[in-house]
Amino acid sequence: MDAQPATIDSKSLLRDADKMPVAELERFLIDINALLRRKRTQDKTLRQRQLLSKINHTILDSTKSERYQILVEKLELRTMTDAEHTEFENLANQEEKLRNQRVKYMIELSQLQDVSLPQVMESLGLTPLVHA
């Protein structure tokens, strides 16, 4: 027979804590606060790893990225066909959606790390886009 973990009832725990002497309750609260900090740190670290993974995966795949660059060159040279222009617009829209999602992830990461967005970008080796 497998032992099931006991369910902890916070109201019962609070009633029991009310029966503790003050010194014991203070030690208990110190231990609870330490436990809370550990759990928050673990959750924060896990979320940061998840965000880093998502940031690294919110880019066009290499085939689409290469095609996008070819189409950018054709656009600049004004040698793009109508079909290529449609393809370019689709790829540009995909890239923009991914970029926006990546920025959202970086903003959340900056908040978790309590640093600015430019600091997160710098730590990731990213530079902001410069628009002409």
How are helices and strands ordered from N to C? HHHHH
Strand content: under 5%
Summed up, the helix count is: 5
N-to-C CA distance: 70 Å
Task: Give the quaternary arrangement of the chains.
Answer: single chain
Rounded radius of gyration (Å): 26 Å
Number of beta-strand segments = 0
Instruction: Report mean pLDDT, rounded to a whole number.
Output: 90
Mass-distribution shape: rod-shaped
Sheet/helix structural class? mainly alpha
Plain-language structure description:
Helix content is 76%, strand content 0%. The chain has 132 residues and is mostly helical. It is rod-shaped, with a radius of gyration of 26 Å. The protein starts with 9 loop residues before the first helix and ends in a 9-residue tail after the last helix.
For this entry, give a set of tags.
5 helices; 132 residues; 76% helix; mainly alpha; rod-shaped; single chain
Topology (SSEs and partners):
Blueprint: H1 10-18, H2 22-57, H3 62-77, H4 82-113, H5 117-123
Helix pairs in contact: 2-4, 3-4, 4-5
Sum this structure up briefly.
The chain has 132 residues and is an all-alpha fold. Helix 2 runs antiparallel to helix 4. The longest helix has 36 residues.
